[in-house]
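Example record

The entry below shows one chain as it appears in the dataset: sequence first, then structure tokens.
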Amino acid sequence: MEREEEFWTSLRQLTAARIGLKRAGASVATGPLLDFQLAHARARDAVHEALDEPKLAAELAGLGLPVVSIASAADDRQTYLMRPDLGRRLAVNAESTLAAHKGNYDVVFVVADGLSARAVALHARPVLSQAINVLRAEGWKIAPLVIVRHGRVAIGDVVATALGAASVVVLIGERPGLSAPDSMGAYLTFGPHAQTTDAERNCISNIRPQGVDYDTASARLVYLLQTMRMRRLSGVRLKDESGRLLAY
């Protein structure tokens, strides 16, 4: 038994997955069971947790760009969870708010709470800070940063169209899992429009210190944006080969 436990202990160092759990008869032992229940509760809490917009806006303002806060057509969290379609549309007054900032931009960064407000609250600023610095140095025209309450990925297409941005990056809280209630995703689209499909997007998933770290996520994000603008496309036709560059 001791050798078996040593075997599982060594494997657990390589993954956050629950493997080799102790058992009590036909059931999982009390310790692993309580750990599972705690992880499940944290995931449920993350889904229902509200985004602290003023705090996030204040943090993003430190990046030196205007920050605009808007909402989707989902009035509350429950509606957002039950009606995904409303999370893809702007609230009634949101379009006029964006119209005041309309211009000719290379990219707009949209931060949406998604299914884990905690994820963007923790990870959006560190990733954006590094990426924006690189893009600024290259002369990119960056639109105001847009925070969307109760937003889905596709709302970035609407925001980009309203602002006049050639590409959009949506940073959004991903569906919480039992090992990660605070994972953030980045969805990138070139030439977004009302009929944009998921096949036209590139995605960087599992952004968090224990997953895709900030440095790697920022580097991949910049690489994809640069390549999107050069090739004028995104999605399945654009392969992420940034790993080759990061290896050197």
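Notes for this example: The chain has nine helices and eight strands. Residues 53-246 form a domain with the Rossmann fold fold (CATH 3.40.50.11240).
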